[in-house]
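Incident review: delayed structure delivery

Summary: a single-chain prediction request sat in the queue longer than the usual turnaround. Root cause was a stuck worker, restarted by the on-call engineer. No data loss occurred. The affected request and its eventual output are reproduced below so the record is complete for anyone auditing the incident later.

Affected input:
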Amino acid sequence: MENKGSLVNVGLGMTLGSHITPLSRSYIENADVVFVAASNNIVEQWVAGMNDDVRSLQEYYQEGLPRRKTYEKMVAVIMDELRLGKNVCGAFYGHPGVFAWAPHESIKQAKAEGFKAHMEPGISAEDCLYADLGIDPGTCGCTHYEASQFIRSQKKFDSSAYLVLWQIGVLGSNTSKKFSTTQDYIQSLVDVLLKTYPEDMEVTLYECAVLPIEETLIYKLTLSQLAQSNTSLKTTLLIPPLSKIKKID
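Output delivered after worker restart:
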């Protein structure tokens, strides 16, 4: 028997107002309570205009606190409202299922306790990357890794495909307590990549725009220059195919 109350976690997309689906907006507008996790206060204020009870999850992020603890607190407050029989909506920037533990875990717990729960997709940074950089992953393939995981696991990958490394701006944060990285950590990534790619390989640093007034960051440089570059929490590294694969007619 299903409990009274429901949970839906929706995606806000990456750029304010441009990427949200009509269905996701409807869930926000009709929920009893909305929990929002956005990368910008302006985005949170925009969501607050859709519902009278919108609560920010950003306050749970703290420098020095493992992000897993942060995510567990987010899930706890979502579940508290759900157990009161409310229709709860979680509004997360980008896609709620991409690099986002709390949306998956809250839905998992909700279903285990007999509540209706599901996820609505949103436009992710990956989608924006394909559009802004003009690449088609179907041309020669595309491999994605979280940057720190990529280094620690020493994963084998196909260099004839695009390589996308996410979150290089927090590279080396094993405990997820930091919100930045250091030149040494970036250099350690370069050292790993140099086992496959030449040092003059042209790579791209990418950050999609969050606000309509912002410009997308597309910065090309060589692999040897990467350690001296500036990065942020939003920075993604794209490495093009090292060699062309043979097309099948």
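Verification: The chain has two domains: 6-120, 125-239.
Action items: add queue-age alerting; document worker restart procedure.
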